[in-house]
Amino acid sequence: DTAVSQTPKYLVTQMGNDKSIKCEQNLGHDTMYWYKQDSKKFLKIMFSYNNKELIINETVPNRFSPKSPDKAHLNLHINSLELGDSAVYFCASSPQDGQGAPYNSPLHFGNGTRLTVT
Amino acid sequence: AQKITQTQPGMFVQEKEAVTLDCTYDTSDPSYGLFWYKQPSSGEMIFLIYQGSYDQQNATEGRYSLNFQKARKSANLVISASQLGDSAMYFCAIKGPSGSARQLTFGSGTQLTVLP
């Protein structure tokens, strides 16, 4: 029943480790995103994929690598974790914008993954 | 580039009263969409309301309405008859062509507390 699901919900790990966060959407949307929410609650786009193709890659360290095996999945792999990577990571998806009303499609968010690096 | 400014880090409102959360935006795009999201303490992001730049009327969704003033580039969220469950962080966001490929650019948020 869940529209956008991401796992795990919580991730606690040590500096230097490699970890992955998985995301799946069952809404049939063609675009998926990763956002990072920092400790001050600010939300910033990291990546966006449209039909498995990368279309946004903001200034994010190359330790972060997204992977989209198919249109319904967008995973985030993080290498060599650092203390500053501690944040909440949100996956989201959106459909095509309406023809008569461009830019009208909201993003549907997963419940977030709280990553804590110690 | 697009930018959203929310100047109220925190707001308080008495239960059953109305409250307005401010949002101003900056964009050079003629066509764009404005969105409001709610983030309760449980952490999920809940879409509330949308306003298109060409919409003639202000958007409404139940107790939520948007006071859209295009010339002033403001899109304030009005919550009527506040309830305790409205206590949450509220984010204003914009989407448009210069934001590249349908991403949402968010403001810094307003923490709303509803008092009993």
Protein described:
The complex is a heterodimer of chains A (118) and B (116). Chain A is mostly beta strands. Chain A contains no helices and eleven strands. Chain A has strands spanning 4-7, 10-13, 19-25, 31-37, 43-50, 53-57, 64-70, 73-78, 87-94, 108-109, 113-117. Chain B is mainly beta and 116 residues long. Chain B contains no helices and twelve strands. In chain B, strands 2, 5, 6, 10, 11 and 12 form a six-stranded mixed beta sheet that branches. In chain B, strands 3-9-8-7 form a four-stranded antiparallel beta sheet, with no helix packed on it. The radius of gyration of chain B is 14 Å and the shape is globular. The mean pLDDT of chain B is 94. The chains are: A mainly beta (118), B mainly beta (116). At the A-B interface, strand 5, strand 9 and strand 10 of A face strand 5, strand 6, strand 10 and strand 11 of B.
Number of DSSP strand runs of chain B: 12
Strand content of chain B: over 45%
Strand-residue proportion of chain A: over 45%
The helix fraction of chain B, in percent, is under 10%
Radius of gyration of chain B: 14 Å
Looking at the structure, what is the overall shape of chain B? Answer: globular
The rough form of chain A would be described as globular
Query: Which regions of chain B are unreliable across 5 or more consecutive residues at pLDDT < 50?
Result: none
- Summed up, the helix count of chain A is 0
Order of helices and strands of chain A: EEEEEEEEEEE
* Main sheet specs of chain A: 7 strands, mixed
Question: What is the radius of gyration of chain A computed over CA atoms, rounded to a whole number of angstroms?
Answer: 14 Å
The biggest beta sheet of chain B, please?
Answer: 6 strands, mixed
Amino- and carboxy-terminal Cα gap of chain B? 41 Å
Which pair of chains has the greatest number of interface residues, and how are they split between the two chains? A-B, 29 and 28 residues
